[in-house]
Specification:
Length: 244
């Protein structure tokens, strides 16, 4: 199996709470893996650990066999260029305009681009996600759904090979959610790796090759797409976020 991200016996402690307990999984290249489970079970934390955005209290996370916590600056930059995240709360810079927010990844990872090229790229992505308002606004001037569109556009700007998506269709109207789903499916056809959190079973069913049920910070069970398709009761359990 071609693992693009591997988590090995990962623990994460926040103050006195053990949020993630002995989590191991190999995320396969070109596959979509859904993290599901009850609220507060540790899904977002596992996703951030897999993305190298949180440092495990114990255990290791590897990107293509290279331990993320011991990467050189250049290795880390290269990883960051290939991997993008849409955060559950969008996580847009509060004190920056949307233009500045969207320019930043391009300035960092494509320093050879001039301003006009950056603007063309930004406008092309915004057209794909269906954002039509001005770019001199700040995040607080947008609705939650509009912030999600910008967060998704930011994640797509550098054409990432790995997408980490945390409830990215939530707070969107049906047609915007469908639009973002189609963009993710396009990435899937492109053999990109997708690791996502969702409570929406329709999204899970359409995208996921593997489904990881997380309960109390632990990997409770792994399901494959085929198992879900075969067993309606299993599907219902996942939909309700209930451990089996
Ligand atoms: N930095 C932190 N400090 C304190 N507690 C934390 C921290 N990060 C996570 N937690 C706690 O860990 C638990 C899991 O949080 P997490 O956000 O990963 O859950 P989740 O499964 O994504 O939930 P939801 O479905 O509501 O988004 C929660 O109880 C949360 O309060
Ligand atoms: Mg979460």
């Amino acid at each position: 199996m071609d693992a693009v991200i591997e988590m090995k016996n990962v623990y994460f402690q926040a103050q006195t709470q053990e949020v993630v307990h002995d989590f191991s999984f190999q995320f396969e290249k070109g596959k979509a893996t859904a993290l599901v489970g009850p609220s507060g079970s540790g899904k977002s934390t596992v996703l951030k650990l897999a993305a190298g955005l949180l440092v495990p209290t114990d255990g290791d996370v590897f990107f293509q066999g290279c331990n993320i916590s011991s990467m050189t600056r250049n290795q880390n930059l290269s990883f960051r260029k290939q991997a993008s995240m849409v955060f559950q709360d969008s996580a847009l810079w509060a004190n920056q305009s949307l233009q500045q927010i969207l320019e930043l990844p391009l300035k960092l990872h494509f320093s050879e681009m001039n301003k006009q090229e950056r603007n063309e790229r930004i406008h092309a992505i915004l057209a794909q996600v269906g954002y039509k308002k001005r770019l001199d606004l700040r995040p607080a001037q947008l609705s939650m759904g509009e912030q999600k569109l910008i967060a998704f556009a930011r994640a797509m700007l550098c054409n990432p090979a790995i997408l980490f998506l945390d409830e990215w269709t939530e707070s969107l109207d049906d047609s915007s959610a469908e639009c973002l789903m189609n963009l993710v499916r396009e990435r899937q056809r492109n053999n990109d790796t997708i690791i996502f959190v969702s409570h929406n079973f329709k999204v899970i069913k359409q995208l996921a090759d593997y489904i990881l049920m997380i309960v109390n910070g632990q990997l409770n069970r792994l399901f494959t797409r085929e198992q879900i398709a075969r067993d309606e009761s299993m599907a219902q359990h996942i939909e309700k976020g209930i451990a089996l």
